[in-house]
Amino acid sequence: MTYLPHLNSIFSVDCVIFAFDEGELKILLIERNQDPYGDWFALPGNMVNNDESIDTAAERVLYELTGLKGIYMEQFYTFGDLGRHPKGRIITVAYFAMIRLTNPKELRPVTAYAKNASWVSIKELPELAFDHKSIFEKGFERVKSKISYQPLAFELLPEKFTLTQLQNLYEIILNKKLDKRNFRKKILGYDILKELDEKQKGVSYRAAKLYKFDRRKYSKYFQNELSFSKD
Amino acid sequence: MTYLPHLNSIFSVDCVIFAFDEGELKILLIERNQDPYGDWFALPGNMVNNDESIDTAAERVLYELTGLKGIYMEQFYTFGDLGRHPKGRIITVAYFAMIRLTNPKELRPVTAYAKNASWVSIKELPELAFDHKSIFEKGFERVKSKISYQPLAFELLPEKFTLTQLQNLYEIILNKKLDKRNFRKKILGYDILKELDEKQKGVSYRAAKLYKFDRRKYSKYFQNELSFSKD
DNA sequence: CCAAAAGTGTTTTGTTTACACCCATGG
DNA sequence: CCATGGGTGTAAACAAAACACTTTTGG
User: Where is the Nudix hydrolase domain (chains A, B) (predicted)?
Assistant: First the structure.
């Protein structure tokens, strides 16, 4: 690399990790344990190592916090304003991820730079370190606009779900009420759901049918779009 | 920055600069004058300096080659695979720009790293250095999908243009034929064009009315979307 | 007067929206 | 038997697509 100037630049990845929990859309926040912004809430992120791609770095950050691999992640923007980090020029590549919360909701905040990690409703976000508020907002915008033409939503739901659960999730993300009949007509019309021979259990009203997302059907009809989930 | 590892990382910006010329969509390519990929065609790009934001770096690259400022540019993706640069890990942030070619079509390839710069039709692109082919493709995809709901096309046309010119440009970008009456109905229906008291000159057939894009009307109705041109 | 492109409406088709009642289940 | 959400169709409004001829101009 001798012909290139050594700029001592630093770059990192930051992740907006979405989950759907208790009827709310939440993101994973860490509490920082070092300055600057010591004790502040922040998006999970880390430096990119010399021997890993940025995608790998993002997957690593997610894995270190959640123990999950093979999660849908997508790079959405790179933030490189001069003032974004008080200690110098650090460019950060931002990703969003969609994860399916299993019941124990276990997190393992084993990273050196975080003393705690928790799921926080996007409606009650605290102030965030650096420019992480803008990063979150841009990521959420991206999710909102993609959700209408790509099956991102399924990544947040359990494998088997009811149409009402799916509709609720869309309503929360899009922040508007949807008509039940029209919603069902449309989503079933895409023919990307598989109806299961199984019903909801443990509810004190008529049990709803369970469905699962059928990746095979999806890729048959929409093979144009990039794969939206790594198998 | 002492608390952060010094990774000696390097990052750059690369630009896919579009223009509409002789009825074709073209991008600006340079011929490299140093290894690796000496003599190859490549997208214009450069290292990001320590004291500039990535947006500024992209504007600088464009300015150095074309002498133009205040051009619409948009960051679209960051490429950071390990193998993308043979001499080491270089992350590059990619931008596209849309420029209005004035008649002399002058370029000033005054940069140190390029011995020539020229407009090349996207239908006849040569092999490109590094992963620049993928960068171009991703950028073009973005333009194609944005053109339908944001007024990017106007950035490529002269200030005064005919509806047929506008339609041709859409057809070339979308790579499909459009119906003349439907196109006019739709584009006029958005009410973002101003009809001028002026007609085409020097044509040997009925002269068409000239229009210009009316930024004021546009921002009135679509103030949601980010500004698509810096004034 | 001819070649070339400008300009102009209506019909058909498909898509989106609005809207209300009966059904099944658990307690 | 009742409270709760599950499940279902049709009509109206709107948007998109298909389609062909007359007008203007320069040469």
Answer: 10-142
Residue B159 CA and nucleotide D25 C1' are separated, in Å, by 24
CA angle B208, B212, B218 (to 5 degrees): 135
Instruction: Identify, with chain letter, the residue nearest to nucleotide C26 (CA–C1').
Output: A204
How, if at all, do strands B24-32 and B10-21 pair?
antiparallel
Expressed in angstroms, the distance from the first to the final Cα of chain B is: 36
Name every residue whose Cβ is closer than 8 Å to that of residue A104 and which is 6 or more positions away in sequence: none
Contact B10 A10 (CB under 8 A): no
Please state which of the ranges A107-121, A188-202, B109-123 shows the lowest mean pLDDT: A107-121
Please state whether strand D lies within 7 Å of residue A184 at its CB atom. Answer: yes
Condensed to tens digits (0 to 9), the pLDDT of residues B67-101 reads 888 999 999 999 999 999 888 889 999 999 999 98
Chain B: residue whose CA lies nearest to A82: B53
What is the residue type of A179?
D
pLDDT tens-digit series, residues B169-220: 999 999 999 999 999 999 999 999 999 999 999 999 999 999 999 998 888 7
Kindly report the length of chain A.
Answer: 231
- Torsion angle defined by CA atoms of residues B63, B68, B70 and B76, in that order, rounded to the nearest 10 degrees: -60
Question: Beta strand B90-99 with B209-213: parallel, antiparallel or unpaired?
Answer: unpaired
pLDDT in tens, B114-153: 788 899 999 999 999 999 999 999 999 999 999 998 999 9
| Helix (H), strand (E), coil (C) string for B137-175 | HHHHHHHHHHCCCCCCHHHHCCCCECHHHHHHHHHHHHC
CATH of domain B10-146: 3.90.79.10
3-state secondary structure of B87: coil
Distance of alpha carbon A18 from alpha carbon A95, whole angstroms: 11
Domain ranges of chain B: 10-146, 159-221
Note whether B11 contacts A91, CB cutoff 8 Å.
Answer: yes
Residues of chain A found within 8 Å of residue B89, distances taken between Cβ atoms: 50-51
User: What is the token pair recorded at B179?
Assistant: 């119906």
d(CA A121, CA A133): 14
Are the C-beta atoms of residues A207 and A162 closer than 8 Å to each other? no
CATH 1.10.10.10 fits B159-221, yes or no: yes
CB contact under 8 A, A80 and B48: yes
Q: How far is B87 from chain A (nearest CA, A)?
A: 5
* CA-based torsion, A172, A176, A181, A184: positive or negative: negative
